[in-house]
């Protein structure tokens, strides 16, 4: 039996707005971020999608986003947290090295890229394996969503080269210990 995972990035935060590196450190959603989450939530109601179970990263920005998307009870999961950028946390984004980051942050107390990808991928695999419900929403972070996409790129035809925007939703099918990316839902926030 296949299950559906909707993996979603949180709404815009103050640090996103200020171009600050935000991994394990946190900042609150902006008004725009809250409105983005509401619009993303409308995607589910407009398409008559019932979320059976919900999970969130332990970061406040992800929890707050999820609470604006659905009023369903949810479980906070540390494995869904963003990349740990070590001492670069809360510093300006211009200090980031060029992509791909690889193991750059390890020397500064952060995570290596493959270590991070493995953490997020194992967390979502365990969740979906144990989950008895059909339709799951997990709210996480930009790099976390991207690394999970990369982990399953070999099974998926869908891709997006541009950065994953705030409240972007990745729709995965899960069956036989395998994920396939079926759709990337980007919302129109031009009115915000």
Structure characterization notes:
Substrate binds at residues 9-16, 61. With 192 residues, this protein is α/β, with parallel strands linked by helices. The protein is 30% helix and 19% strand. It has a six-stranded mixed β-sheet with strand order 3-2-4-1-5-6, with helices on both faces. Strand 5 (169-175) and strand 6 form a beta hairpin. Helix 4 (113-130) packs across helix 5 (142-151). It is globular. The chain starts with a strand and ends in a 7-residue tail after the last strand.
Structure described in brief:
30% of the residues lie in helices and 19% in strands. It is of the alpha/beta class.
Mean pLDDT: 97
The CATH homology group name: Phosphoglycerate mutase-like
**CATH C-level category:** Alpha Beta
The first-to-last residue Cα distance is 40 Å
Basic shape: globular
- Uncertain segments are none
CATH structural architecture = 3-Layer(aba) Sandwich
| Rg from alpha-carbon coordinates | 16 Å
CATH fold naming: Rossmann fold
Q: In terms of structural class, how would the helical and strand content be classed?
A: alpha/beta
Count of separate DSSP helical elements: 5
Order of helices and strands: EHHEHEHEHEE
What is the share of helical residues? 25-40%
Spatial order of strands in the largest sheet: 3-2-4-1-5-6
Quote the beta fraction.
15-25%
What is the number of domains? 1
GO molecular function: phosphatase activity
InterPro entries: His_Pase_superF_clade-1, His_PPase_superfam, PG/BPGM_mutase_AS, PGM_Phosphatase
Organism: Alkalibacterium olivapovliticus
Binding site for substrate: 9-16, 61
């Amino acid at each position: 039996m296949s299950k559906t995972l909707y993996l979603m990035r949180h709404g815009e935060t103050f640090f996103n707005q200020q171009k600050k590196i935000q991994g394990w450190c946190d900042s609150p959603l902006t008004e725009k971020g809250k409105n983005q989450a509401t619009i993303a939530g409308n995607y589910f109601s407009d398409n008559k999608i019932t979320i059976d179970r919900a999970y969130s990263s332990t970061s406040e920005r992800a929890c707050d986003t999820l609470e604006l998307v659905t009023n369903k009870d949810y479980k906070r999961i540390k494995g869904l947290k963003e990349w740990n950028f070590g001492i670069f946390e809360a510093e300006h984004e211009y200090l980031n090295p060029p992509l791909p980051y690889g193991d750059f942050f390890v020397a500064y107390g952060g995570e290596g890229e493959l270590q991070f990808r493995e953490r997020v991928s194992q967390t979502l695999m365990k969740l979906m394996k144990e989950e008895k419900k059909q339709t799951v929403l997990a709210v996480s972070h930009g790099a976390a969503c991207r690394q999970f996409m990369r982990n399953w790129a070999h099974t998926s035809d869908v891709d997006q080269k541009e950065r994953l925007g705030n409240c972007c939703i990745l729709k995965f099918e899960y069956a036989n210990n395998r994920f396939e990316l079926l759709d990337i839902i980007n919302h129109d926030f031009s009115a915000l």
